[in-house]
Amino acid sequence: MQPRLGIYIHIPFCASKCGYCDFYSCAGAAERMAEYQQALLEHIEESAGRIAPAYIDTVYFGGGTPSYYGARRIVEILQELKVTNRLMKQSEITVECNPDSVTDRLLHRLRAEGFNRVSMGVQSDNDEMLKKLGRPHTYAQAVTALQRIRNAGFRNVSLDLMYGLPGQTLQDWQQTLDNVISLMPEHMSCYGLKVEEGTPLYEIRDAVDIPSDDVQADMYLAAVEALRGRGFRQYEISNFCRKGLYSRHNMKYWTGGEYLGFGPSASSDFAGKRFTLVRDLQTYIQGIKKGGNVMEDIQEIPLRERAGEYLMLRLRTSVGISGDEYEKQFLLPFAPLEEVLYKHRTYYRTERSDDGRWTLTPKGYLVSNDIISDLLIAQDDSRPLKRI
Fold it and tell me: What is the pTM of this model?
């Protein structure tokens, strides 16, 4: 079977910048869209030879705000990928949207072109909290946008929520969960607010009453319980789905699949190397125009480091880790790691299935950094297995 490849397209444009956002994006730069589009299409075209050995089975348009970028440009990008003749008919093709930039024209155009999944940032059902975050929409707009998405024919919709918001209580969060789950999405992502240095929210973090770590832990467990009780399966620390409709693209990141990114700040793990593209719109555009190098931080990952990533990433998911899999791929003993996993099982943080796969419990997810740290220490102390 030929290898499968995910494609990530970064759209670095937003109508406005949210106060907590640490992703690379440019607010109020619509005049640069045409120039960026030309560079992006050229980059994809010149990468066709690299893509050729694989079939593309997922495409993800993220940002920024792809829905702000406009239907015509998004369709042009997907058509350029189709020209490679590597895009599979059953590919998962996702576009991120914000409620304020969702239009019927956009949705019907994308659906007709083959997009089959929408991920929309709702974040909260409380307009006051949305305003504090700098979100450019209301909850009513989010509900209306979802209706439009359904009317356009999308049957795989993901809604994003955030907890740990300024002034938010556990009761507020539980009400938010009830309201948004009742909208019947196929997928939900629940992320704790991270106040990153360099963002506007970071500058006022001590004055906005962010819930304590203990309260945020309770919020996380409340989300797990509420979603499980309404038919969702937790398949990753922050992600839940119905009917097996997990994000096939994001699972590539967590299970070691190959993906190729386009656009400033986009990351790739491809052909045994990991690299990131320059985190600057102008530098990216000029690099593509002039045939320069737009890659930075290129790494060829040693096998032992890949083994550590296997532990860190797969333990984020319900797939978990397997001793047989680990030893076969990385030629390292699993027994020292299993000792660590058994130790944490006594605290109900890990569990082992009948077929020998280890996963974290919701309580384990809360202290996943500690568990993974213990595993990496055990891995560092182990000696490679002898080849037979």
Answer: 0.96
